[in-house]
Design a protein that fits this description.
This protein is of the alpha/beta class. Helix content is about 35%, strand content about 25%. The two termini are about 30 Å apart.
Length: about 250
């Protein structure tokens, strides 16, 4: 279990919205905390409000009740499901976009981004365009673009969902290693339990809508790497246990 200090408190977070059929309760009294340098995954049935939590944590959605308290002045980076790379911008220019929009592009910040591209195997593609990259490489670029602003916490919304199973495994390992190497704290939403078990320190299981916390699992695999975790004796047991928690029929 992570022993670092708590940097985020989410307390009794609830969210309602209106549609044509009336009021919908999306989240109901969601409570959890986040430790520095911890990796949390949030899983749950479709429509239970997983991505809504990320929108609230990022500050995009401010219409909620409950408390979201960051323990200090932290910067948050948000990586969406799609890479959203602009086809007319080079890989380097795509990675510099956030810096440009936030008026933080200078020689030092540019050199930092170039160093990340070199460090994570994209040096030869710096001046290429997104069409020259595989789906997995594009996701790596999207992560580096997010890291360019040096966020303290990364919010990852299904970052591997657009990839095939083989690419998911390869790029999942890459993203996990990059986040750990850069010493970042992360919260990821995913539907893939193997993915969650391969990267997480804790897994938060939500009920079906309205989403609330059903159970929080501490994942203790002695900090093994992405692929080695799958060889742990209790990996499949945990996967089966979490899968039973996600069984919508049993939650009814």
């Amino acid at each position: 279990m992570i022993k670092n200090k708590i940097i985020l408190l989410v307390d009794k977070l609830s969210k309602k919205y209106q549609d044509l059929n009336g009021e919908i309760v999306a989240l109901d009294n969601v409570t959890f905390n986040l430790y520095e340098k911890e990796f949390i995954s949030i899983v749950g049935p479709s429509g239970c409000g997983k991505s809504t939590i990320l929108s609230i944590l990022s500050g995009i959605d401010k219409d909620y009740t409950g408390d979201v308290v960051y323990k200090k002045n932290l910067k948050v980076g948000y990586m969406l499901q799609t890479d959203s790379l602009f086809p007319w911008r080079t890989i380097l220019d795509n990675c510099l976009l956030g810096l440009e929009l936030n008026h933080k592009l200078n020689n030092d910040s540019k050199e930092y981004v170039i160093s990340l591209l070199k460090k994570y195997g994209l040096e030869q593609f710096i001046n290429k365009y997104p069409d020259n990259l595989s789906g997995g490489m594009r996701q790596r670029v999207a992560l580096i673009r997010t890291l360019a602003l040096k966020p303290d916490i990364l919010l990852l919304d299904e970052p591997l969902s657009a990839l095939d199973s083989q690419s998911r495994s390869i790029i999942g390992k890459d993203i996990f290693n990059i986040i750990k190497n850069e010493g970042k704290t992360a919260i990821m939403v995913t539907h893939d339990l193997q993915e969650a078990l391969s990267v997480s320190d804790r897994i938060i299981v939500l009920t079906k809508r309205p989403g609330s916390v059903k159970k929080i699992y501490n994942i203790e695999f002695n900090n093994l790497d992405f692929n080695s975790r799958k060889l742990e004796n209790n990996f499949n047991k945990l996967q089966d246990e979490i899968w039973r928690d996600l069984d919508v029929d049993n939650n009814s």
